[in-house]
Write a structure and sequence with these properties.
Layout (H helix, E strand, L loop, with lengths): L1 H33 L5 H14 L7 H8 L4 H6 L2 H25 L5 H17 L6 H32 L5 H40 L12 H17 L2 H10 L5 H20 L6 H14 L8 H36 L1
Helix pairs in contact: 1-2, 1-5, 1-8, 1-9, 1-10, 2-8, 2-9, 3-8, 5-6, 5-13, 6-13, 7-11, 7-12, 8-9, 8-11, 11-12
Length: 341
């Protein structure tokens, strides 16, 4: 019975990873589609490929943060396998429901923060505030603000440098060069997306396994977790998320290939650098900041601030909304467990 429950929760975690790729596909391909460098079908295949290639980057710092840096893993494990399974299932369902709602509404919210919120909300009924790792949560909360600002700064800097480097060239030649370079920048961003987002679910799967059937083993991330999570997110990316593509690629600001290159490179470099520090940032927040930064180099009126404001509100409410949803699911799981017993 326990083994079957573990397999089910691991399957739900991989489904979340698939939905994460589906939900965040727009982040990886919005600029390259909006600048018409790649067709939508080629763009999602390109992004999915680099999502998977990121599995071989050799870094699992974000996975360890998600597994032990938000909730106190040892305290949760001490509550027994049933508590571990109930908490993780509720956390995943809270994040999945919020992701699907924001996908339906066309809002590019953060899967990273939805999962963090789900973990927080599902843990509180079991362990209370003592079960939360305050420093880890504070770090994630700080980078809700910092990651888009860093992405914006790099986006502005790269746009200014790129424009200066080609200011004597004809617009046709500039467009031709940056259409090719945007293939590289899109690959960088898709790689960073895999590096950051696939690792979140590795941490969750590790909590499930080392908190239940492998309680006698030390917490670590196995190779098969890495491969399966990257495969799931790559498949999700391949099936896309067109409602959010429209918001990210067209509604925020109008991008040319040179702007797409600057935004994708700025966002991708930010995410890769922060992943090395084990900080599970939002790819959505970061690329949005970079796109806004690139648009702002043409003047503040080039950015549709009403759309940006809608996106920011989605960022603000994601963690509490996912946490509240996870609390509801935890209550439902307890009712079902009592009825079953």
């Amino acid at each position: 019975m326990l083994l079957a429950a573990v397999i089910l929760i691991v399957a739900v975690a991989l489904i979340f990873d698939f939905i994460n790729g589906f939900h965040d596909a727009a982040n990886s391909i919005a600029t390259v589609v909006s600048t018409r460098v790649l067709s939508p079908n080629l763009a999602v295949a390109w992004a999915a490929f680099f999502n998977f290639v990121a599995a071989f980057g050799g870094n699992v710092h974000v996975a360890n943060t998600m597994g032990k840096g938000i909730i106190n893993f040892e305290m949760l494990r001490a509550q027994g396998p049933s508590a571990v399974l109930a908490v993780i299932f509720s956390a995943l369902m809270g994040a999945i429901v919020w992701n699907l709602l924001t996908w339906w509404w066309g809002l590019p919210s953060s899967s990273s923060h939805a999962l963090a919120g789900g973990m927080i909300g599902a843990t509180l009924p079991v362990l209370g505030f003592a079960g939360l790792v305050g420093s880890g949560i504070a770090k994630i909360a700080a980078f809700i603000v910092l990651s888009p600002l860093i992405g914006m700064t790099l986006g502005i800097g790269l746009m200014v440098l790129s424009t200066w480097a080609v200011h004597r060239q004809t617009p046709l030649k500039v467009d031709s060069w940056f259409r090719r370079l945007q293939l590289v920048s899109s690959a960088i961003f898709s790689y960073s997306h895999g590096t950051n987002d696939a690792q979140k679910v590795m941490g969750i799967i590790a909590v499930v396994l080392f908190g239940t059937i492998w309680q006698d083993r030390p917490f670590h991330i196995d190779w098969w977790m890495i491969i399966s999570c990257h495969a799931a997110i790559a498949l999700g990316t391949f099936f896309g998320g067109w409602r959010i593509v429209r918001t990210m690629g067209h509604s925020l600001t109008k991008l040319a290939p040179i702007g797409g290159f600057a935004a994708e490179t700025g966002g991708g470099v930010t995410i890769i650098a922060l992943a090395q520090l084990g900080i599970p940032v939002s790819t959505t927040h970061t690329i949005t900041g970079a796109i806004v930064g690139v648009g702002a180099t043409r003047g503040w009126r080039a950015v549709k601030w009403g759309v940006a404001g809608r996106i920011i509100w989605a960022w603000v409410v994601t963690i509490p909304a996912a946490a509240l949803t996870a609390v509801v699911f935890y209550g439902l799981t307890q009712v079902v467990m009592r009825l079953a017993s």
